[in-house]
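We modelled the chain as a single entity of 485 amino acids. Its sequence is:
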Amino acid sequence: MTATRPPTETAAAAPSGGARRQREMLRRVRRADIAVPAIAFLLLAPLYSALSVVGQRQLRTSGFDLGIFVQQVASYARLDAPTSDLLGTGYNTLGDHFSPITALLAPFYRLAPVPETLLVAQGVLFAVGVVPLSRWACRSLGTVAGIVVALGYGLSWGLQSALNFDFHEIAFGVPMLAFAMAALGQGHWRAAVAWTLPLVFVKEDMGLTVIVIGALVAWWTTGRTRILGLATAAWGAAWIVLTITVLIPLLSADDAYGQGSKLPPLGEGIADTTHGLVSGDSRAATVLLLLAVTGFAALRSPLTLVAVPTVAWRFLSDNTNFWKPIFHYNAILMPILFAALIDALIRGRRDMHLSPRAQRVVLAAVAAVALVALPFQPLARLADADGWRVDPQVTTARAVSASIPSGDRVSASNNLVPQFVSDHPVSVFPQRETDSTTPEWIVVNIGRPAGWPKDESGDNTAISAALAHGYSVVSDVNGILVLRR
């Protein structure tokens, strides 16, 4: 007769071994969900910051918009109302866009009053967004998924395009949305709401995003939490109405919400958007790239709905720049889409809609898109020695800036403004109608015309007018013409 272990003994032994394996697995997961986000942040923050700072030293930045934000934050640092002479003489920037959150940068700018302070801050804030997303992926899907999410988010074209184009207030919206979406996807409703509510101070259109997040919380919950979700949606709606109809017009130069002029009647906008998507204009390209960045898997998650308001108002606008996969407009969509990717994979595993092999294919596609696109993205410049060189025109512009007394007003070409804006009162050349100042100095990039607010011919006409009205040429070096009144 063969000896056998009693059922009770077998039952006792099995859980003991299983419990040990489970504890060890949990320890590995905890180590990964700390290591992967930390390493990703420590790699991305300096890379992002370097890309932006090098851009400033290669004449890739501009007065519109980096110069505007420098003047805005400098005003906060002086404890003044946020103004920008680039928008118009004494123009309150909150009358253009409602973005009071940039005041948080004032202490840092006071310590280091240079444009690079804003650029580095943006790089760090973008990098912070990788932390909640990759941590959630590690905990729910494993280390490999966490690494892929960090890679995909970190190299995403939406973030790189924004880093390649000055500084913008959405730098704050990106990490806030990353934390909000990660909390929302994990059912941490109060945390999701806490990260969502301040979005209304990033920019007036973010109230639309707040409405959707609040609606999702209300839809997925009951009782007091549902009331919390409805209150969040109401908060977003209230701030949209308040900023667009009261605050911005009150602080603007013409008592109106100027950005509203870029939105045609709703029916006309819908018809034009539909035609554009069907005909394959830049809106279609943007949609394709937004979906491709997550291997199209984000479509399987309801979290993608959070991206709809931003895409909608941009596509309905008659400003074609809003349609394109360039500039900073797509940055806030990246944390939303990568949160939707994680949620889609979790749902697929839970509901058995995606086999383990299918999930591996999705993750491979996300990594492939990020890596294949990298050589064509702005970060690729950092792999080349030329990507780090300082533009000779920047050296010349900074020498000119140093030679001008700090209190003297300067009118400079749009692509030269960031080289002067931290040391002098600056407006853009040729002067706009909203600029009533009389600058002591005019600095024009005749070697590489900025192309805005006038083209090269317009620049030449304005230079001739300045010479006829008491200005004289001081220097002409490296294509930078300096006039003095």
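As a brief sanity check on the tokenised model: The CA atoms of residues 44 and 74 lie 27 Å apart. Residues 1-14 have pLDDT under 50 and may be disordered.
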